[in-house]
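Key result, reporting period 2: structure in, sequence out.
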């Protein structure tokens, strides 16, 4: 799995997982989010438009990233989930915690 990263401003970054977010790839996502937060980017948007599949490990990585960002005084939001990802979020009720935004810009409002 590849992870694209874009810096929107001094404290906001966008992470774009491409492919399948499973047990095999979650360590990379956790590490990337940790590095971004340590570098001062405490507002993280995970753009899921290129994520074909997510399993429980992937969900765990998102929740772990949320915790990491919040402990640093920030937040983690998700944007543009694919239909499969949206379905998994709904089935697990995580769409109530990780509320999907229609776009990356909408994730933090006026970001």
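The corresponding designed sequence is given below.
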């Amino acid at each position: 799995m590849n992870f694209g990263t874009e810096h929107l401003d001094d404290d906001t970054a966008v992470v774009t997982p491409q492919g399948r977010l499973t047990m095999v790839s979650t360590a990379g996502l956790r590490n990337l989010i940790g590095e971004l937060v340590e570098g001062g980017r405490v507002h993280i948007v995970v753009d899921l438009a290129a994520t074909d599949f997510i399993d429980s490990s992937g969900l765990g990585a998102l929740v772990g990233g949320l915790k990491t960002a919040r402990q640093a005084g920030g937040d983690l939001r998700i944007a543009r989930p694919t239909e499969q990802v949206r379905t998994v979020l709904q089935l697990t009720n995580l769409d109530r915690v990780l509320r999907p935004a229609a776009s990356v810009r909408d994730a933090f409002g006026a970001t």
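The first strand starts at residue 2 and ends at 9. Residues 56-71 form the longest helix (16 residues). This case is discussed further under Risks and Mitigation.
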